[in-house]
Design goal:
- The chain is an alpha/beta fold and 219 residues long.
- Strands 3-4-5-2-1-6-7-9-8 form a nine-stranded mixed beta sheet, with helices on both faces.
- The longest helix has 14 residues.
- The protein is globular and about 45 Å long.
- The mean pLDDT is 92.
């Protein structure tokens, strides 16, 4: 799965992963991170999620990165926002007030892009990646942040033999393997999400677990 896969999905508007609502787990569990107002929050692989708007509305600075320019432009157009656009090779930077989105490849980010980030929200990044890329995703986070950051992570877990991703199944053991060396991992909630996901049932699933984690930097 390469960058062309996702660019093509956006080009064809095959974006069933996009939610036309603010994530309920974000609203319920984000306050448990205890972040100060004004903290800069990193949202990797952000697409055009409404979660960006919610985080800004709660008093946070928000920094997203998204590969598809179709997604980035659609986000600002749908919210009737006119961003200031500038070139920051290899990225194009879109900014309105407390919200900044870099259009480009997450794996091209450098530590200077994220040096003032205080927390991370990952709803659809880790589960968007196949197993052979998730280690690289976590390694890039470690490279970007010399000191680990508080993170709210949302995953899906299901029998991967019954449905091919994306979204991919990510179990508790894998979360521990990827992040346990740098973070204390607390499972905040686990939900049977199949009834709310009829498309997944049509794709063959008989069980779907949605899990919410707080990842706390180790002392």
């Amino acid at each position: 799965m390469n960058t062309e896969f996702w660019l093509e999905r956006w080009h064809r508007r095959e974006i069933g992963f996009h939610l036309d609502e603010i994530n309920t787990h974000l609203q319920e569990h984000w306050p448990r991170l205890g972040l100060q107002p004004g903290t800069r929050v990193f949202v990797p692989l952000c697409g055009k999620t409404l979660d960006l708007i919610w985080l800004v509305s709660q008093g946070f600075q928000v920094f997203g990165v998204e590969l598809s320019e179709i997604a980035v432009q659609a986000f600002f157009e749908e919210h009737e926002l006119t961003p200031e656009i500038s070139e920051m090779p290899p990225f194009r930077r879109y900014q309105v007030g407390e919200l900044t989105v870099l259009c480009g490849d997450y794996f091209a980010l450098e530590p200077h892009h994220t040096e003032d980030v205080g927390a991370i929200f990952d709803r659809a990044s880790l589960i968007a990646l196949p197993p052979d890329m998730r280690g690289s995703y976590a390694a890039q986070l470690k490279r970007l942040f010399a000191r680990p950051r508080d993170t709210l992570l949302i995953t899906l877990n299901y029998d991967q033999t019954k449905m091919s991703g994306p979204p991919f199944a990510v179990g508790t053991g894998e979360v521990a393997r990827l992040f346990g060396g740098t973070h204390r991992i607390e499972e905040l909630a686990a939900f049977d999400a199949l009834d709310d996901s009829p498309n997944f049932r049509r794709r063959g699933l008989t069980a779907l677990l949605e899990q919410v984690y707080a990842l706390r930097p180790r002392d």
